[in-house]
């Protein structure tokens, strides 16, 4: 099969290598998926740069890619939820990424049937940002009607999904973006739009219940100022905390490292009587089915910035790294029949 491979960790000048690889092995609980489309995420760039090599088990060479939509072509002996011909989508488990390829083996518990009205490209844009938003706002924050949430980078992949989910949950939603993207985020449900180039969000917003951060450490620290006592600051861009190491089941020796990395923000949060959490989203087919129901009900819609052909995977990743995409970037691995 064709795939795009990381040969070594490097931040710049490190294009993925096009390669011919054997088909993935299919375990008893695995589903072999013919990939039609794959989402491209900032996470892919961070993994390629080696930002998670301390805590995630990727050893070059490996296939990159964390979002997939396609068709089941074979199932393992103990698979009961899917059968050949099913159109599916998923965020593969963190130990089994590899969506920038023609085939991938995924545990059946991490898969869900694709929303019927979405194209493969649209479906591939959903899993990682959808599960990230769900786990942040539903699982960790337990966001309730009438609460206030600030979602940074509202026009990005996570932002465009999280705004819609937060609005569905009944929250008042504020977001940061550029003036050029104000109409987009308002159309998704944002109530308060902060132009980050003109206004300081921490001086405009007050007494918020939840902040979802996907930006840098400066923005993370400023976000503490908008929270009420008892509020929650959730970051998907770090720094990781000791709870993250425990969740991953990593050796105890890594936990002090995580404690040091997050010491500053946890101490600052404690002073303001708020809670800091780092989220590295998990694959979860059950949650993805909840998301499917919202999409099929018309409550949430995908936002796709641009679709690249499979041969242009490196160009797609570069486009994401420039940080100007509105919504998600997708690559098409197999053309859909018209």
Largest sheet, in brief, is: 7 strands, mixed
Strand content: 25-35%
Radius of gyration: 19 Å
What's the architecture of the largest domain, going by CATH? Alpha-Beta Complex
CATH 4th-level superfamily of the largest domain: Medium-chain alcohol dehydrogenases, catalytic domain
How many structural domains?
Answer: 2
CATH class of the largest domain: Alpha Beta
Query: Strand pairing plus helix content: what structural class?
Result: alpha/beta
**Count of strand segments:** 16
Mean pLDDT: 94
Secondary structure tally, helices: 12
Low-pLDDT segments, ≥5 res? none
Q: Give helix % range.
A: 25-40%
CATH topology of the largest domain: Quinone Oxidoreductase, Chain A, domain 1
- From the N-terminal CA to the C-terminal CA, the straight-line distance is 24 Å
Shape: globular
Order of helices and strands: EEEHEEEEEHHEHEHEHEHEHHHEHEHE
GO molecular function, one term: zinc ion binding
Pfam families: ADH_N (PF08240), ADH_zinc_N_2 (PF13602)
Keywords: Oxidoreductase
Domain Enoyl reductase (ER): 13-331
């Amino acid at each position: 099969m064709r795939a795009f491979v990381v040969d070594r960790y490097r931040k710049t000048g490190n294009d993925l290598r096009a390669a011919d690889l054997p088909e993935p092995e299919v375990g008893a609980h695995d589903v072999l998926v013919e990939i039609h489309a794959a989402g491209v995420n900032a996470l892919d760039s961070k993994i390629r740069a080696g930002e998670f090599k301390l805590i995630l088990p990727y050893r070059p060479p490996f296939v990159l890619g964390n979002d997939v939509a396609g068709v089941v072509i074979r199932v393992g002996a103990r698979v009961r939820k899917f059968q050949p011909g099913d159109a599916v989508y998923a965020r593969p488990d963190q130990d089994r990424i590899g969506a920038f390829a023609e085939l991938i083996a995924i545990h059946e518990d991490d898969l869900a049937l694709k929303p019927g009205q979405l194209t493969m490209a649209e479906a591939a844009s959903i899993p990682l940002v959808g599960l990230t938003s769900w786990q942040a706002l539903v699982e960790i924050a337990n966001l309730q009607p009438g609460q206030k949430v600030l979602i940074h980078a509202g026009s990005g992949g996570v932002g465009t999904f999280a705004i819609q989910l937060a609005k569905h949950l009944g929250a008042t939603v504020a977001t940061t973006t550029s003036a050029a993207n104000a109409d987009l985020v308002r159309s998704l449900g944002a109530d308060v739009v902060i132009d980050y180039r003109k206004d300081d969000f921490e001086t405009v917003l007050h007494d918020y219940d939840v902040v979802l951060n996907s930006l840098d450490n400066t923005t993370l620290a400023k976000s503490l100022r908008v929270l009420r006592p008892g509020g929650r600051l959730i970051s998907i861009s770090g720094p990781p905390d000791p709870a993250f190491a425990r969740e991953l089941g990593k050796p105890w020796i890594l936990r002090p490292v995580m404690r040091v990395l997050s010491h500053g923000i946890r101490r600052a949060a404690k002073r303001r009587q708020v809670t800091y959490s780092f989220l590295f989203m998990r694959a979860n087919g059950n949650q993805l089915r909840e998301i499917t129901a919202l999409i099929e009900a018309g409550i949430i819609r995908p936002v796709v910035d641009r679709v690249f052909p499979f041969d242009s995977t490196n160009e797609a990743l570069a486009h994401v790294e420039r940080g100007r995409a509105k919504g998600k970037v997708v690559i098409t691995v197999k053309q859909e029949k018209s």
